[in-house]
Amino acid sequence: MRSAVSVILSSTSPDHNMSHPDYSLTIHSHTNMLLMIKHLDDDGDQDWFEQVFTHLSSVNKISLLDSAGTERHITARFVNEYPVGNNEWGDFQTHRKLLGLITVGQCNSQSELNEYCRLHETLRVKYMSTLFDTRCILFGDCKDLPPPSNFKSTSLTFNCELEECKQELTKMMSEMLSSVFWILEAKLQEKGREKVDKIPMLLAPFEKKDFVGLDMDSRTNRKRCVGRMSKHLGDLCLQAGLPQEALTHYNTAVDVLRSITDWLWLGGALEGLSAVSILLLNKEKPQNSAPVQRNSSFQEKSPRSLRPVTAIIERTISLTSVANSDYIPVAEIKRNYRDAIIHYSKYQNAGFIETEACFKAARFALEQKCVLDAHHYLQGVIQINLVLSEEEKICRLLSLATLYSSLGFNRKSAFYKRLAATRYVSARNPMTDWAQCYQLMLQSLAGHRLTLDPADFPQDRLSGWPSLQKQVLHDLVVAAKRLGNSGLATRHMTFLLQVMWRHMTPSEHVEAANNLRHVTAQCEGAPVPLVLEDGQVIPAANLLNIPQAENFTVQNLESHLRPKKLVIAKEDYGPFLFTPSHYGGSIDRKLNKNKQSKLDYVWVCGDPCCVTLELSNPLPCPLEVSNILLLTQGVYESIPESVVLPPDSTGVVVQLRGVPKEVGDLQVMGYSTHTLGVKSNCLLSQLTRFPHPTSYCIEVIPALPIITVSISRDPNLPCSLYAGETVTCHLRITNNSDVPISILQLSIDSLIETQDLISWDNAALEKLLPIPERSSVQIPLQLFGAANFLSPSNDSCSLRSCFFSGPSSLPSFSTPQPVSTSSVSFRSGASSLVSDFSQRHHSDKSCSELHLVVKYSGGPSATKGYCRLSSVPLKIDVLPSIMITNCDVLPGQVPSQFYLVLDVVNVTSQELELRYTQDKSILIEETGSCRVPIPVARCPYSASLLEVEQHVLSQVILHWSIGARTGKATFPGLPFNIDKLDLVKLSPVSWELSVNGSPIESGSEVSGSVGDCLSFDVKLRNCLSTNLSELTLVLSLFQDHLNGVIDRQMDSKATAVGTTQASITSVAENQAVDHAVGFLFFYPGLYKLSVECIPKSTPEHAWKLIPPVEIHVT
Amino acid sequence: MAVCVAIVNRSNAPKYIACVNPDMELEFHYKVHTSLDVIEERLTSTGKSNTERQEFYLGILYSTEEHTIYGYVTNTRTKIMIITDTSNKLLRDNEVRAMFRKLHSAYSHILCNPFYVPGDDIKSKYFEQVAKSVMVGG
What we know:
Chain A is 32% helix and 28% strand. Chain A is of the alpha+beta class.
């Protein structure tokens, strides 16, 4: 009610001759007596008047006893402005009659008093036709001043503050009310006593000219008079606190008026009937009756919250209670009301009556929780044609909106609020008020399921009505712009673009972007909440879609700056080599997804790092995005980036660089941009175009040193090495940082086997530490030309066949010739092979590329276990120097040795000197080859094949020199044939021979003559620590023609005396077995005696006496 | 016959709206939107007592001098609304019911399409055709 009053107050010059609907009326207004409290000084203290009005209007109810002794409850309604036009409807509905006038003023002088009295009189005259009583209340020092002579009204003066005279005022008001009541009562009595034929015709204001010249005495008109009077009496009874009588009168009136089809008055009677019925209904249920004064506050309560639970119950209660009484049931009241409204609607001039009736009916229906009925009453209101000023139209719309929102019809409420907002600024409105328009627009947002907080908008699902929301937001932007608040307009435009992007067409995108650019030309947008003058906070909005982020990756540091763990903990893969299900891991991952992802790499405090952002421009025009910064929690210095995105481009990569300044966890929340004049904070949690956590968490570790590594080679040194050559170069390490290096480790990273290629002294390295800041050190490195010296042309299989191809090439039993001499002859034979070989491999250098990795650390991060790796590439070219094309094993000159015979090819283009034993060397021409025998000590019999190989390797080292360059060659992987093992290994038995009783040395010559019997005594000694058993001792004579032919047919040349074979069952450890045999030679010559012992278990391993005994027979 | 046809999903967001005169689309949007209040009210007041509503047709939701809005709610609370010209007095209630039934069966037809994701806006030639036929008065 207050709001309505203030609206009326604010109207500057209401048209007094028009009737204006009061939207705050309720059904209960029918029972009220209408009084006006008027401030005499319109320009005076409004607050003070408000207080006075509040106090005076609080006295709105009195109870008194009438002449018959029954108690009457009288209620009053107060206004402070009342259009005369409305007063004129007083005959139609008596509660529209202004019955009392109270004027209030502050008066201190005679002239003021005179003026106020004049005003009071003017008002009294204005409402003369209906006024019953008046009062003029004056505050201030005017008690003794005489009122003007023509002032007839009752005046009261209070020379004190309002607080002190409140009681007196209350008393005065009660008196005033009862005085008005008694006059009313008197009128009622008077009207009731009137004769039927004397009843005057009551007329609504617009009817006056309709009845001019009509026969008032016709039967219909008589009835009309009676019916109207009955209705009038009903009104008066209702006001005078006699509802039962009113009910009777109204019923009569309805019957009479219906019969003569006096629709307007029938409507009035029906409305009155409804009013009285409701009054009686409420009296029946006192808990439900709302006091008149609280009606205005009733609207503010939300009936929706309690309705679903209580609606049905309440309705049944009201229905049953009505059924038990004789009063009209609710359903009929509603029907009556509906009829009344329909009857009113037949008269264009009764529009304001109809409007008010609709509001009253709707309020009643709301009270009865019949929302749909309320809606039904209200839906016609807007179509009632009333001559109203724009301001009143707005008032009507707002009243509708308020009522609808109390019905719970938020959409309708929002619709009317918007309509009201547009009325404020419509072309027809002479006083456009954009501030009001903006406020109403804001209020209408809720009904369209809009808030101004982007966080309330889920990106994935539809909420509300997009096409309307777009329109509403757009209107809001316009209102804010016209309001002159560009900041607000920018904010709303940004919000529109953020929230409604999905629902906009590309052309709308462009239009909105252009609008935004236009708006921000006046005021830039910033991501901070705006606070309006009335304290309303508009949350920040961000341009998430211009430009759109397609990807966001927190980058690891550059590989050479990337901190590594000094000690890599062995990962626990669990008991399974492979399993598709991640038991522990999956839960971790889920947790990470929900919360935030902690990255498994780290950034270093003070070192520049980078985040890559992929941006897309959805607009068909170039888009300048400036000041792109990283949003972090933690101290981080971000370097602003700017980029101009081409039209309709996607995936433009922007590198956001910065430097972390604080050790600890750094939260990367998103990025900020400045585009189209709006600064936006785009948080990861708001981006939806790609999967990502809500924030990234990366650990920042304390500063680590940075080094540069270089290898300095002596310029005199050749750039490529010959196989087997060793050179020294220097590794230079420079500490470029301000952190001393305390840990330094070298390692090699290469795909190939590189152990031999490079070596350094770790102890020397340790001594260099710590390396202070901004200084450098040098470490010597040894490079070695490691290569395979075995012939690469033949595969190992063919090489093997060459090696141990048996005695075809070399007579195994021949006495090895001094190889240095034979090499010449040999070379001629093999030259074709060798030349072919050398041609093929002369320029065949092997090239090893490897990385020398320096692991270093220092400062606080070293204690945390972090280090950095720096690697320097190293290329080692190895030229072949010598090659082994063939090898063979020959028995040695002494039993403890054997000869390893190697065919060595010089594959260089220079003459090469090969030193193959301590004191023997040979020159090999370029691309020449030679065969060298290398005496090698035999290895023990018990040695395994592997041990044999190692034994040979350790003994066979070839040293070569080309000019000043030297090198050595070793032969890992030299294949050994099992067959020749007997040569390589020491024999398990030793032989002692004596001829004719005199012992002979190994390798010495025995001489005899033809016909003499040479008696050989062979003593076989077991050198092993175990017994030998089942042996066969065989002695055989043969002749070696030294040309590869061995003649074993000795039958005609010599004969044996005794057996040449002996079977030995067992020889104990370190024991010897004797066997004697004599030989008789028929012809002189050179004979040889081979002595061998064949174990029966492995007959292929025969242990021979080396060399065979030579017998010179003369 | 009808001047506008609208399908609104259970969370009161539009799924389909078509009208005879495209210039008036926004106006119809507002009309359909505000009529949702009435439907909501109907559903809360009647839906409580008997959860299995037999009657889909809600009748007139709102009527102005120009347009009359009829409502229809399926069991899944998808709302179908038809706006007709109030001046068209020839239109009988049965005809409106028939229009609703037609739209409802077309809607179910759409839902049966395995390529239609429930909740998406309706973009179907078939449905368009049905809606057009309802509006033209076929």
